[in-house]
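so ive been stuck on this for like two days lol. basically i have the seq below and the ligand is magnesium ion, smiles is in there too. i just want the complex predicted, nothing fancy, no docking runs or whatever. if the output looks off dont worry ill sanity check it later, just need somthing to start from for the group meeting slides
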Amino acid sequence: MSVLEIRNLHASVEDREILKGVNLTLRSGEIHALMGPNGSGKSTLAYVIAGHPHYTVTEGDILIDGESILELEPDERTKAGIFLAFQYPVAVPGVSVANFLRTAVSNVRGYTAQQAETEGRSGVIGSNLMPMREFRKELNEKMKEYNVDPSFARRYLNDGFSGGEKKRTEVLQMAMLEPKFAIMDESDSGLDIDALRVVSDGINKLATPDRGFLLITHYQRLLNYVKPHYVSIFYDGRVVMTGGPELAHVLEEKGYGWVEREFGAEAVPA
Ligand SMILES: Nc1ncnc2c1ncn2[C@@H]1O[C@H](COP(=O)(O)OP(=O)(O)OP(=O)(O)O)[C@@H](O)[C@H]1O
Ligand SMILES: [Mg+2]
């Protein structure tokens, strides 16, 4: 079992503090939903966990199984088992889904040019990558398993993809990378029913006992398809409350007004 622990995390962007003491623990086998109003810092938290260079951690720590990952580069964090699905994935014209995945998988699984040399595969283009034939075989199997059309592999990453297609790529990526901790930043507003199903089916299939999910979401909608073990409310740069799935229903019904009254800057200390 693995644990991702966020301890009193403070982070800033351009000297403005966005994360103001986040505490959150994610264990393998758990699905943890994170809900909170626009601008409260949820995506920032996801980026900081992934090691985005834009953000500066000023206090606190992020640990995997007790080891800080703050000094790790983003690709090393991916290697350590962290996967981040962006709220707004970027298009990468010129890079096919297959090539992108092969590079990512090779990094995570530690394929190196040196290794290729000892195996007598050096000197060829791509010798620092997972061997093409093996990769293809696995990709085809996973595409079948996750209902992704084979023609997909040749298309340029996210270029002209529909919402559902972007989500399919994301699920495929997760299936190939087999992360310990998957952080999914969902732009629910952009998720049509097809995309919603792709994401939820993918998560349900990939939610094994050795993997933890952090689902950042605005609405209860996704949680009708994926049952979280915990729901945390994010407000003004920190987690202010954690409960069970019922908390998502309370938010859906009552909105965030009561959260603001209880935890906002104007709140009267009890
Ligand atoms: N790179 C950046 N440069 C400047 N400000 C930023 C940057 N990233 C985030 N912020 C600011 O940090 C605050 C939190 O933004 P963030 O995107 O994390 O919120 P969010 O909770 O994900 O919102 P939403 O629900 O709309 O997705 C916002 O005020 C935003 O403008
Ligand atoms: Mg966001």
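The CA atoms of residues 261 and 267 lie 5 Å apart. The mean pLDDT is 89.
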